[in-house]
Prior knowledge:
Blueprint: E1 10-12, H1 31-44, E2 46-51, E3 53-54, E4 60-61, H2 64-78, E5 83-87, H3 96-106, E6 110-114, H4 115-118, H5 125-138, E7 141-146, H6 149-160, E8 170-175, H7 190-195, E9 202-206, H8 211-220, E10 224-227, H9 244-257, H10 265-270
Parallel strand pairs: 1-2, 1-10, 2-5, 5-6, 6-7, 7-8, 8-9, 9-10
Antiparallel strand pairs: 3-4
Helix pairs in contact: 1-2, 1-9, 2-3, 8-9
Amino acid sequence: MQTPLKPVTVSVAPNGAYKTKKDHPGLPMTAKELGETAAACHDAGAAMIHLHVRDHDGVHLLDEHAYRTATAAVARAVGRDMVVQITCEAGGRYNRQEQMAVVRAVVPEAVSIALRDIVPDGAAEGDAAAFYAWLRREGVLIQTILFTPEEVTRYYALRERGVLGEGKDFLLFVLGRYTPGQVSVPADLLPFLSVFRGDVPWAMCAFGRQEHACAVTAAALGGHVRVGFENNLHAADGSVAADNSVLVRQAADGARFLARPLGSAQDLRELYS
């Protein structure tokens, strides 16, 4: 009998730190808009929403109150049917101490952490280790963001030295950068997988118009996917997507085409259990 394929979870990153409604009128910026986006994306197949919040001028913000307000809006819209993951991205505004402080203040269900931000060098390892130990004690679901294959190798070195603490991990391989004209391609995933040990769950996100092709490739290779306006505004046919749910539905349909069942929020939580 053939072994059933594992579920693939789709996450949505609906806004990011830099885009505004000048980039797309449907880009969610307020808590109310994030709640509405969560509902639409959940219906399209998303199991997790990756939250960025903004100040009154629409600028990237790391703020406890704003995160609590946005999280509550998502909860009203979808209950526990989506994992709410906050970001601690610097966004050119915050230092690593401020990044760690907002996570401690919010105590979110899940957080994404760029390894290069929180553990930039050996001198940062002491307080980074204390931060990771706190995250593990609090049961926060950690997704570690890795931008290069070299960072995958460094992740393993830090884990083996105990800097990242004991517990389950979920990696995010980032294909591309915030660069005008940046277009990621599916082959960009291969150097990451060449140094990945296959021992923890992983997902990918991709900048540019080939986001969908990259997502389907990741799903075909056993990974999970993250899509959304943070990284790409275009549907697979090259048209501007009406909203984030278009990109989620494409990814969900791609997973189904590969005969991988679509994972729920509970399936995602179980990756950490």
